[in-house]
Specification:
It is an enzyme of class 1 (oxidoreductase). By secondary structure, the protein is of the alpha/beta class. About 55% of the residues lie in helices and about 10% in strands. The strands form 2 sheets. A 6-stranded parallel beta sheet has the order 3-2-1-4-5-6, with helices on both faces. A 3-stranded mixed beta sheet has the order 7-8-9. α10 crosses α15.
């Protein structure tokens, strides 16, 4: 009788374990429904790849079809337009260059909101004007969808390694749903407040980044002119109070660090055009809020001049090269 009881008990335990595993499996599979992705540029492509690596089916599109090929080879489904993405997915991420691109992708003739399903979660990781994010949120709400802004910091390298920082703005009750996806692509996901606050945080960060990079470039150039070895100068800066991200992680002087744009003729990285665009956003928001940003305004002008002098497609750390060339003017 005891043996029979033990056998029944073991059978029950095995059955219970099987049911629990099946429940966990089905719950896991339910969360891995297709994710839409619009915008497969330098940042969007590695972000979408990380979703695939985490087991999410991806439905993608880009204005340049050739940008989709690598992702398609990894198993993503490629469609013709943002509206086609919206028809097939109820969680969609967008990563686009500017405010006009975002407006077109969401509200244009073939935009997401043309075919968006009620309850769809829309996450925009572009860096745009906070006012545009709020406009898109209103338009999405009219269609029964939820819009959140989640711009990123970290650049192409961090995007490839899933180490981005996401700054999230939107309804707090939707944050957990957004976080589930964003943690597949980033190391830090920070809730900032209502729609537009993610953009506000990103704009502030990039203004400081631009100012810091110009300061680092000026410092490295001056030190070299004074006869200091650039690697030695960088070492001293990075153990002193002048240390910053631009000096210890992304040094603009060639020959100081490996694996950064300054070691590759300023190719790759974060383009000067994009930095000028972000500083323009900072300038606009500062004007609208009557906030003085004298160094931010000067940084904006420097990067705009660089764009007109052949640096538009180079990494923004090429401001070091720009300053060196200005010496001979």
């Amino acid at each position: 009788m005891a043996a029979l009881f033990r056998g029944s008990r073991n059978l029950l335990l095995r059955w219970t374990k099987h049911v629990d595993l099946a429940f966990v499996s089905s719950r896991s599979m339910a969360s891995k429904t297709p994710i839409g992705f619009v915008g497969l540029g330098n940042m969007g492509s590695p972000m979408a790849k990380n979703l695939l690596r985490n087991g999410y089916p991806v439905i993608a599109t880009d204005v340049f079809p050739e940008s989709c090929k690598e992702l398609q080879d990894m198993g993503a489904q490629v469609v013709d337009s943002p509206s086609d993405v919206a028809e097939k997915a109820d969680r969609i991420l967008t990563m686009l260059p500017s405010s006009p691109n975002v407006i077109e992708v969401y509200t244009g003739p073939n935009g997401i909101l043309k075919k968006v399903k009620k309850g769809t979660l829309l996450i925009d990781s572009s860096t745009i004007d906070p006012a545009v994010s709020r406009e898109m949120a209103v338009a999405a709400e009219k269609m029964g969808a939820v819009f959140m802004d989640a711009p990123v910091s970290g650049g192409v390298g961090a995007a490839s390694m899933a180490k981005l920082t996401f700054m999230v703005g939107g309804a707090e009750e939707e944050y957990n749903a957004a976080q589930e996806l964003l943690t597949c692509m980033g190391a830090n996901v920070v809730y900032c407040g209502g729609v537009g606050t993610g953009q506000a945080a990103k704009i502030c960060n990039n203004m400081l980044l631009a100012i810091g990079m110009i300061g680092t470039a000026e410092t490295m150039n001056l030190g070299i002119r004074l006869g200091l070895d650039p690697k030695l100068l960088a070492k001293i800066l990075n153990m002193s109070s002048g240390r910053c991200w631009s000096s210890d992680t992304y040094n603009p002087a060639p020959g100081v660090m490996e694996g950064v744009p300054s070691a590759n003729n300023y190719q790759g990285g974060f383009g000067t055009t994009l930095m000028a665009k972000d500083l323009g956003l900072a300038q606009n928001t500062a004007t609208n809020t009557k906030t003085p940003i004298p160094l931010g305004s000067l940084a904006h002008q420097i990067f705009r001049v660089m764009c007109s002098r052949g640096y538009a497609n180079k990494d923004f750390s090429s401001v070091f090269q720009f300053l060196r060339e200005e010496e001979g003017q």
